[in-house]
TrEMBL record:
One of its GO terms (molecular function) is phosphoric diester hydrolase activity. Pfam families: GDPD. It comes from Hesseltinella vesiculosa. InterPro entries: GP_PDE_dom, PLC-like_Pdiesterase_TIM-brl. It comes from the Eukaryota. Residues 4-248 form the GP-PDE domain. GO terms for biological process: lipid metabolic process. This is PLC-like phosphodiesterase.
Length: 283
């Protein structure tokens, strides 16, 4: 049985501030096989490693990322927890190119649907900068562009062609089937979307097209075990060490997910996510 790739969600964020270089570095040190992190576009066109549209949840600042300059503004802030600098995508690329970073390390850059499409131009421009252009072949193996909406896929193909791998990220199984099957390299779906017969059939369908299926956010042991049993290719979660331990477990137990209450819970979550995906993302 092939074990899924362990992907560190916003780095090793169960122990270190999310989307910081410390969190990514600690994830690599702990044995993560891949990383995942989010980007936002600042007023001065810098790619800030940030999940939220606003600064206040995770940093000492307030207000929208897109309404503030990085230089002279966001770069003066720190995370609330452990006082780490607010990173840019530049810092992530530097980390991926460090000699001590494993050669097979890669990272999903999560580009949320509520970003402006212009964020992809900024990603393209950054990767074309001389500092990174000389490492294009390496970065093409280490950077995966994560998108939530078909318009972003169209824009990615216009800018990059097939040079970089692309990952659809979403919560709607029907949206994934309608817009992304056989069109991207990875399909990353919320765990609830896969936790029924149709979800598991979708894994086989994606595999038949040569696509890899990932699942998020995998923070419970029974979820980790289920993903192994279903043949999911990668799990994205907060606790790197726990994921590594559980995917290697000799005995896999996902029986808790079969209880009526759990089945009903995930059924409801799947329906809510599907409706929310249509309402907010448009697919």
């Amino acid at each position: 049985m092939v074990k899924p790739t362990v992907i560190a969600h916003r780095g090793f964020c169960s122990k270190y501030p999310e989307n910081t270089i410390l969190s990514y570095r600690k994830a690599i040190e702990a044995g993560a096989q891949a990383l995942e992190g989010d980007i936002r576009l600042s007023k001065d066109n810098q790619l800030v490693m940030m999940h939220d549209l606003t600064l206040q949840r995770t940093t000492t600042g307030t207000g929208a990322v897109g309404e503030q300059d990085y230089f002279g503004g966001i770069d003066q802030l720190t995370t609330k927890d452990q006082a780490q600098p607010i990173a840019r995508m530049n810092d992530v690329l530097d980390l991926l190119l460090e000699p001590t970073t494993p050669d097979d390390m890669w990272m999903i850059i999560d580009i949320k649907y509520d970003n402006p499409l212009a964020i992809l131009d900024a990603v393209h421009d950054l990767l074309k900068e001389e500092k990174y252009a000389v490492h294009t072949e390496v970065l093409q193996q280490r950077v995966v562009l994560g998108i939530w909406h078909p318009d972003f896929l169209t824009k990615v193909r216009e800018l990059f062609g097939d040079a970089y791998k692309v990952c659809f990220i979403g919560a709607s199984l029907s949206g994934a089937r309608r817009h992304f099957i056989n069109k991207v390299d990875y399909i990353s779906l919320a765990f609830a979307a896969l936790n029924d017969d149709d979800g598991r059939a979708f894994i086989g369908e994606a595999h038949s097209h040569g696509q890899k299926v990932l699942s998020w956010t995998i923070n419970y042991v029974e979820q980790m075990h289920a993903c192994v049993l279903w043949g999911v290719d990668g799990i994205i979660g907060n606790d790197v060490k726990e994921m590594l331990e559980q995917v290697k477990a000799e005995t896999l137990d996902s029986s808790a997910l079969k209880h009526t209450r759990q089945r009903l819970y995930y059924f409801c979550i799947k329906k809510v996510m599907s409706v929310a995906s249509y309402a907010y993302v448009g697919i």
